[in-house]
Amino acid sequence: MPPPIDTVLGVSISLPGRAVVFDYGEVISFTPSPEDRARLVAASGGPAEAFWAAYDADRDALDQGLLPTTDYWIGIGAALGFDWDIPQAQLMWSLDFRGWTTADPEVVRVITDLDAGDTRLALLSNAARDYGTPFRHSPIGELFEHVFVSGELLLLKPDPAIYRHAADVLGLRPEDLVFIDNREKNVRGAESIGITGHVYTDPASLRAFLESLA
After folding, report:
1. How many CB atoms lie within 10 A of CB 5?
2. Treating both helix axes as pointing N-terminal to C-terminal, what angle do 184-191 and 160-170 enclose, rounded to 10 degrees?
3. Count of H-run helices and E-run strands, the chain
4. Cβ atoms within 10 A of the Cβ of 118, count?
5. For the chain, which domains are there?
6. Phi, psi angles (nearest 5°) of residue 4
7. How far apart are CA 115 and CA 15, in angstroms?
8. pLDDT tens-digit profile of 135-171?
């Protein structure tokens, strides 16, 4: 049995003059599990295919800050033929939030090793604005110099403007940023303005990539 995560000793990773910018969902956090997805469908009371179609239909508008969170969930209920109230919307939001925020300790360890090496850190996530506070004020959030949430910026990855905004706020040239995301199109968007990108697949490959830059 592996030791608890807090007893595992990491090795610092130092990238002087650069900042590493992480995506959150499916990079820092695990992919929502089949059990997480099943709980959402069961709580919706509708068939899985119809639920996921409604879930995806307005997700970009939610993540870009163009659709309020409550309206998003009540809209899903309406698409399924239900008149959801606030308690039902809150239940759905809570189940969804859990699925997208359960962190992978191995990735968190990579981030703490970067912090130990005095590497600047930031977060850039396509997420609704209600994710901003937990992203900033969770234990790992305190390691990020800046947290950029698409729903607050009214921009979505892979729009080059969102990466330029991050570089400007960090006071760095794009070529001094390293961007980590699990979606290739988002990495390519960052690379289009000169940022060094890495398509995330697993913690070991992430660590090897970052150590290759040190």
Report:
1. 10
2. 60
3. 11, 5
4. 11
5. 13-30+103-213 (3.40.50.1000), 34-100 (no CATH)
6. -55, 150
7. 10
8. 999 999 999 999 999 999 999 999 999 999 999 999 9
